[in-house]
Amino acid sequence: MTYPENALDKLGFTEVKALIRSQCLSEMGREMADRIRPMSNFEQINKFLRQADECKNILENDSPLPIQNFYNIEQLARKARVEGSFLTEDEFFRLLVSLTTVFAVIAYFNDREGLYPNLEALFEHLPVEKKIIRQIEQVIDPRGKIRPNASKELQEIISAIAKAEQEARKKISQVFNQARENGWVADGGLTVRDGRLCIPVLAENKRKLKGFIHDESASGQTVYLEPEEVFRLNNQVRDLEFDLRRETIRILTALTTELRPYVPLLESYHGLLAKLDFVRAKALFALEVEGAMPELLTDQTLNLVNARHPLLLLAMKKHQQAVVPLNVRIDQGQRIVVVSGPNAGGKSVCMKTVGLLQVMVQAGLLIPADSASKVGVFRQIFADIGDDQSIESDLSTYSAHLSKMKYFVQHADARTMVLIDEFGTGTDPQFGGPMAEAVLEALNKKKIRGVITTHYSNLKIFANAAEGIENASMLFDSVGLRPMYILETGKPGSSYAFEIAQKIGLPNEVLESAKSKIGEHQKRVDSMLIDLERDKKLLVESRAEMQKQERRVKALIDENEKLKAYLEENKKGILKAAKQEAQQIIQGANKLIENTISGIRESKADQQITRDLRENLRQEMKKNEVKEAPKLAIAAQPAEELAQGDWVKLTDSDTIGQVIDLHKDNVVLAIGDLRSVVKRKRVQKITMKEVPKEVRKSSSTLSADSIAQFKPELDVRGMRGEEALYEIEKLLDRALMMGFPSLRIIHGKGDGILRKLIRDYLRKYSHVKRIEDEHADRGGDGITYVYM
């Protein structure tokens, strides 16, 4: 698949794997991250890409996946498979926690059926056998200890131990009090030695008490004596403890035997947890590098849009700097891109970005490029990067390069991507250039795809004439004398050797001497490349201005066409309205004229009255002049489709929410602090003005980042009672809104006052199902587990 063996290391893929590994929660996920390899099966690559994309969508827009707690079930299943073996209390507890996580994950996706089909396929046909949990819970309590009532015999033994210990303590207390009254004991109280309760007796009084001496102090002045009266009772306790251990092993063995038929299912559950952890790690890495899923193609085509090297992107983020995006196309017509340009101009980064993103896609990883990018599938990826000289194999740098070229020419085909950095270097340029040209010609005949970087002019000339090979250059600001890190295809680039040397400050006499030593032909070629780059820049600027003017003209034409269409559609109505208005004006004018003539006749043509009537007629005619037609409005455009960020209202209620995702006929809404999935037909789009201010304000209080950062744990040690309860109440409210099943409250042990206050409050909280102590190894009754 890849050649040589260190090709993935050279491209930076090993570092990408390490970053994904660091995101895994479990050792199973980390093992899967270590096994990431580029694949050549289209269906498999497509499946892995879609799983990572769906998980990224969950992390950005949905509630967190409930996979915080799980362990390696496969190891436990392998142990349980052996006849006569048994799992310990702690191992059963780890199995119980892991199975709880498995069933929570399956329930999570069942609630979102159809939204994440590729992730749902991970547990398709996987049965939910909750009987396993019930069987374990009958024996193991929530703290990971065996229940006292796991069997009748166990309950009797525990009761007998408690009774015997109580009797022994009562007896030794009597002896201790009597010895203290007699002044036989040393300072201090009862103590334990070798697991036995003893009295500290002054050495000179050890003969005055009958019993067994277990130890003495460093000074020898105090001995630790077990009274004879208590010795028998303590032996009885020890025998009962052996009985307790045997009964515990019997119960655990029986439980393991009951679960043995489920071993294959447990291994399947293990596979689900491992895959989910791994996919989640890939999605988290994609979020870090702003990754997206490109369009996957079956042929050997590559079209990267705004692509960035993921490791360079992360490094620049730390310094709050941006990475210049890369746009490159490789297809049937442009199979090989020969990149030239100045040193430190980004040629190698360009080539490595293409190679690394190709490997990442074929490994099922999202890449830092626009989703409009297109990536094909290659059967082989060959890379010659860096210095691989070998003392053991007696290979120089150039010999190592030639060994790789030999392999490339022999094994490459049309489904091979070839990446070569600084092609032909390592020997005399007079011979290295022609050798590199011959190798490039041989590779081109095999129809390979790839990216090659070089400074050799003969390779630039060959690429210009050869079919399927395209020149490209990394742009350089010839005025500011600095690289621009932008790839431009269609022409070779100058090395800008003299310009860079001049900027660094090399003396002029040295520069002039160097210029005189190169051939006149090479001078003309280099000058021509610089002039071409300058002319190309002017042409690009002119073309951009022309495109801007074309867009303005097109917008005016579209507006004119809309106006014309509107006039055509409404011409008849406008003419009819105009005729009616004209008729009304004429009728009004006629009537006014008739009234004026009648008034003149009645006044027998009196001059003053006639003058007044004529003035009145003139004023009325002026009022009835045809008014300017109102401006025509363009017909309203049809309603737009729903999109992320739109505000909608449920048709069957007054509830208002904001769209955060769309999937087929389902709409994911943010309603205040809650997330809800409803059918598209149940919502109606509304404008921002129709949304109350308090609703808009509340919608912004719970972002995806705050959900991801929420920790279901609270430390109230050192707080006053009222302050602790206030913080706990806030934690409970947010846990309910986010759907978290459990919380941990750390209050410490102390005198138990704060613990009692908190637990009394939790018992009155209606949404708390039950509360328990944490596991004894992880804090015991100093931590309260709250199940919602």
From TrEMBL:
Keyword Hydrolase: yes
SUPFAM superfamilies: DNA repair protein MutS, domain III, P-loop containing nucleoside triphosphate hydrolases, SMR domain-like
UniProtKB keywords: ATP-binding, Coiled coil, DNA-binding, Endonuclease, Hydrolase, Nuclease, Nucleotide-binding, RNA-binding, rRNA-binding
Organism domain of life: Bacteria
Transmembrane regions listed in the UniProt entry: none
Coiled coil: 147-174, 529-595
EC numbers, comma separated: 3.1.-.-, 3.6.4.-
Keyword Nuclease: yes
Subunit structure: Homodimer. Binds to stalled ribosomes, contacting rRNA.
Known function: Endonuclease that is involved in the suppression of homologous recombination and thus may have a key role in the control of bacterial genetic diversity. Acts as a ribosome collision sensor, splitting the ribosome into its 2 subunits. Detects stalled/collided 70S ribosomes which it binds and splits by an ATP-hydrolysis driven conformational change. Acts upstream of the ribosome quality control system (RQC), a ribosome-associated complex that mediates the extraction of incompletely synthesized nascent chains from stalled ribosomes and their subsequent degradation. Probably generates substrates for RQC.
Full protein name: Endonuclease MutS2
Top-level taxonomy: Bacteria, Pseudomonadati, Bacteroidota, Sphingobacteriia, Sphingobacteriales
